[in-house]
Design goal:
globular, 5-stranded mixed β-sheet, 8-stranded mixed β-sheet
Length: 488
Amino acid sequence: MDGPQGLDLARDKMRDAGVPDVAIKVFEHGYHLLEEGATGILPESDVEPLADVGRAADLDVDDDAARGALALTALVKLNGGLGTSMGMDRAKSLLPVRGDLTFLDVIARQVLAAREESGARLPLVLMNSFRTRDDTLAALGRYPGLPVDGVPQDFLQNREPKLRADDLTPVEWPDDPELEWCPPGHGDLYTALQTSGVLDALRAAGFRYAAVSNADNLGSAPSAAMAGWFASTGAGFAAEVARRTPADRKGGHLVVRADDHRIVLRETSQVADEDKDAASDIERHAFFNTNNLWLDLDRLADLLAQHDGVLPLPLIRNEKNVDPADASSPRVVQIETAMGAAIELFEDAVVIEVGRERFLPVKTTDDLLRLRSDVYALGDDGTVRATVPEPDITLDPEHFKTVADFDARFPHGVPSLVLAESLTVEGDWTFGADVSVVGPARLRPPTDGGPGTVPDDATVGADGVVEPEAKREVPVDLSDVEDAAPTV
């Protein structure tokens, strides 16, 4: 079946499912790019490194101006993720991260504390998916003080059909029809804000700015200083960026397009094979996008009107199996865009370098172990801060990839990591209570080939498990950490 018929089928399917007309037009735009063979590739020869980036650490924002800007700011959290890469089938934001507190609990505490400190209304608005909405709104019900008059607590991201890779027709999967659909990437933020009416509601309620971030990044707490800085720039769009480390070599990064000198987000999928070495050079391309974004809502409304709701964001062609858990299921293409890519649509867009404390995502159980450990402390204001340098964590994916497997192997809680430089776990190990990790630690596969156990009160170091010894008090300097002792 040829392309136009495939588009017609997809369009009909979206209409039947009640997808808004503007979202269908956005899908049509992406479909035509897909038909034309667009890949979104941005050659190294067409870009220049991003340089002369200001630092948040050097900001000097007047307190009154900062509070005034925060009073005009809404907090938008992307909350459509199910944590499928970690074996979850519900909202990742409902995963416990500090004792019994979930991501959502910590976010709510951050918002309420920022309101008390600043006097700002600071609404929290979630961009949910159909599969995360009910659970998360029920969880927010534990915080009756969160809703703000005139502002919805959430809006739904749109959905689109997955397309067969061989003919670009909507895939059929009777075993689980929900898997026939996918989100259009987080670039759908702008379309969903408009089609849901939330953009108009925020502006009508007197809000000028939005601070946008991922729900699984607890580092992106509300910041009056950042709000004051963004307001002072007069820009329509800003991105918080951080310096790339060797661990970030393969990730997306920000560059400057040579022909018009606009800042552009170049995702990994937009790097040509012959440019991979240059793109992974963290000295040349020093900054990555944290996905903490700042938007001027009036400017965004004007931009959407200018483009009839269809922002010309670069296409991301994402190919996978219709059932991610079944490698034999049909190959499909998902048409996606990235919300950070909108930076190129604002000629006055700005960036600011932030420390890694503003970027604490949880994408794997390696990240989850670190966040649940005593490396971090949760303050009374909901902020999560590292008490010591963060250790590198590598858990055997065969035994620790899913949250269920992870929790089964840490039945008594995670080990102490405050004295660890790194932890590498190879093989199937279950950890006892009150285990400490020291220095560059490594657990090699158990010698008998079966599961291994780290005893209660043991220490794990460079040579593996050291048998239990008298429990030691670990001296940690918390003088620079406000309310450093975990409150959970």
